[in-house]
Design brief:
Protein name: Helix-turn-helix transcriptional regulator
Structural class: alpha+beta
Strand order of the largest sheet: 1-3-2
InterPro entries: Metal_resp_DNA-bind_regulator (IPR052509), Tscrpt_reg_PadR_N (IPR005149), WH-like_DNA-bd_sf (IPR036388), WH_DNA-bd_sf (IPR036390)
Largest sheet: 3 strands, antiparallel
Oligomer: single chain
Helix content: 55-70%
Organism: Kribbella yunnanensis
Radius of gyration: 15 Å
C-alpha cells in the first residue's frame, strides 16, 4: 500500500489498535499488519514518530514496562485519544461514502 494513501488515516488506525489494551511499539506494528491482512507493513521510521506525535498531542500515554526481561515503552489510549478515535472513525465513514459514491455511482 502506498504511503500517500495512509496520510491522514494512520493516526486513527494506531489509536484503534490500542483502544482496548496497552501495547508496545512492535506489538502495534504487528497488530496493524494482522488487522490489515498484511497490507500495512509499516517501517519503524513511520510508526515511532507517529507514536511520539500522538503522545505529545495527548492522545496516547506511555510507560516503561519490563516484558520478558526487556524494557519496552507501552502505549495506551487516553480519554482525549478515545475522542480522537471516535472522530477518526466518523471521518473515515464519511470519506468512504464519498469515494464509493464517486468510484461506484451506479452500485447500491
Amino acid at each position: 500500500m502506498k504511503a500517500d494513501v495512509l496520510r491522514g488515516h494512520l493516526d486513527p488506525m494506531i489509536l484503534a489498535v490500542v483502544e482496548h489494551d496497552p501495547l508496545h511499539g512492535y506489538a502495534i506494528m504487528e497488530a496493524l499488519l494482522e488487522r490489515s491482512g498484511g497490507a500495512l507493513d509499516l517501517p519503524t521510521g513511520t510508526l515511532y514518530p507517529a507514536l511520539r506525535r500522538l503522545e505529545r498531542a495527548g492522545y496516547l500515554a506511555s510507560e516503561w514496562q519490563t516484558v520478558g526481561g526487556r524494557k519496552r515503552r507501552t502505549y495506551q489510549l487516553t480519554s482525549a485519544g478515545q475522542k480522537m478515535l471516535a472522530s477518526g472513525k466518523e471521518e473515515w465513514l464519511t470519506f468512504r461514502t464519498v469515494v464509493e459514491g464517486v468510484l461506484r455511482p451506479n452500485e447500491a
